[in-house]
């Protein structure tokens, strides 16, 4: 006979279990409420500057000059946006950013996945040394490499070209690491079956590994695209032609064109952030799936 078989003890144990269960549910509710409050506070921290930029961009210029900190206006207008499109080179800047970010993303995903596949599923001498050197590259500041890269591109005649902006951004150690983490988790039997069917390493990579790696490809693609879109320092060095400038560099010339026009500056910030907001809104689930699937915590 167990303790729960005794009538008095059993009747006392049921309320005890219910009380414990009730306290657990209360703790979970409190945890979810605290988590929601923290997430909401962080969201507001990120959204308030963008909302303030949006509010300032639709205010008349004289109102902004008179009271630049105000959030409200009785006469909303889109003059700041029309001025940017009329006097600036926004169509060129958008096109340049899209082309360079897309080329950088495609080449980075291809090069990073190939390197990660070699490190994860092939065996060669100094494999561990290569991996250590790659990871050590994260500790090298990018500013250290700018002058050598600039001189190299200058000798190659790639200044003021798309390739001059794209090629130095393609080597991405973080992308290699994320891909390798995902590839390490793939079943070895999958590769053995491909090898038994006579597939070489390149065919295995392209027809077997890459199709099942869509979550991590999506995550790396989005992160690399956003980084390339927002890149400012390197394009500033290698691009001097206004019609070849990407959006972040082109927006710096707004002050030179308009003086100190706060409404136009805020409008340019909104236009610069809008594509990235759309990307994250559409592909946010892919980002989470890719991070979870790659083992990156």
What report would you give on this structure?
It is a single chain. This protein has 297 residues and is an all-alpha fold. It has 15 helices and no strands. Helix 4 crosses helix 8 and helix 9 crosses helix 10.
Which features does this protein show?
297 residues, mainly alpha, flat, 0% strand, 15 helices, single chain, 75% helix
Structure in a nutshell:
The protein is an all-alpha fold and 297 residues long.
- Fraction in helix: over 70%
Instruction: Choose one word for the global shape.
Output: flat
Number of helices: 15
Number of strands: 0
Largest sheet: none
Elements, N to C (H/E): HHHHHHHHHHHHHHH
| Percentage beta strand | under 5%
Mean pLDDT: 80
How far is the N terminus from the C terminus? Answer: 49 Å
Unreliable spans: none
Radius of gyration: 27 Å
Q: Which structural class matches the secondary elements?
A: mainly alpha
Chain-wise SSE layout:
Layout: H1 7-57, H2 61-66, H3 79-87, H4 90-121, H5 127-136, H6 142-156, H7 162-166, H8 173-184, H9 188-196, H10 201-209, H11 214-230, H12 233-238, H13 247-251, H14 254-258, H15 262-294
């Amino acid at each position: 006979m167990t303790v729960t078989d005794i009538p008095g003890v059993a009747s006392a144990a049921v309320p005890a279990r219910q009380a414990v269960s009730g306290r657990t549910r209360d703790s979970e509710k409190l945890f979810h409420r605290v988590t929601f409050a923290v997430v909401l506070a962080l969201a507001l921290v990120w959204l308030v500057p963008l909302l303030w930029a949006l509010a300032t961009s639709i205010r008349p210029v004289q109102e902004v000059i008179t009271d630049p900190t105000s959030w409200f206006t009785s006469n909303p207008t889109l003059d700041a946006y029309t001025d940017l499109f009329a006097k600036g080179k926004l169509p060129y800047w958008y096109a340049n950013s899209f082309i360079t970010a897309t080329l950088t993303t495609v080449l980075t995903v291809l090069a990073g996945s190939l390197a990660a596949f070699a490190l994860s599923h092939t065996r060669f001498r100094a494999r561990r040394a290569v991996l250590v050197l790659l990871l050590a590259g994260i500790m090298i500041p990018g500013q250290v490499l700018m002058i050598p890269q600039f001189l190299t591109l200058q000798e190659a005649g790639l200044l003021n070209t798309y390739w001059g902006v794209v090629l130095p951004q393609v080597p991405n150690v973080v992308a290699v690491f994320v891909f390798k983490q995902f590839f390490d988790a793939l079943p070895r039997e999958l590769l053995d079956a491909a090898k038994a069917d006579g597939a070489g390493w390149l065919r295995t990579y392209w027809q077997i590994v890459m199709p099942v790696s869509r979550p991590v490809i999506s995550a790396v693609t989005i992160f690399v695209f956003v980084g390339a879109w927002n890149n400012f320092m390197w394009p500033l060095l290698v691009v001097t032609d206004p019609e070849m400038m990407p959006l972040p560099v082109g927006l710096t010339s707004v002050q030179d064109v308009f003086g100190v026009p706060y409404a136009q500056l805020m409008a340019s910030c909104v236009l610069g952030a809008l594509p990235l907001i759309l990307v994250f809104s559409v592909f946010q689930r892919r980002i989470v799936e890719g991070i979870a699937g790659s083992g990156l915590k």
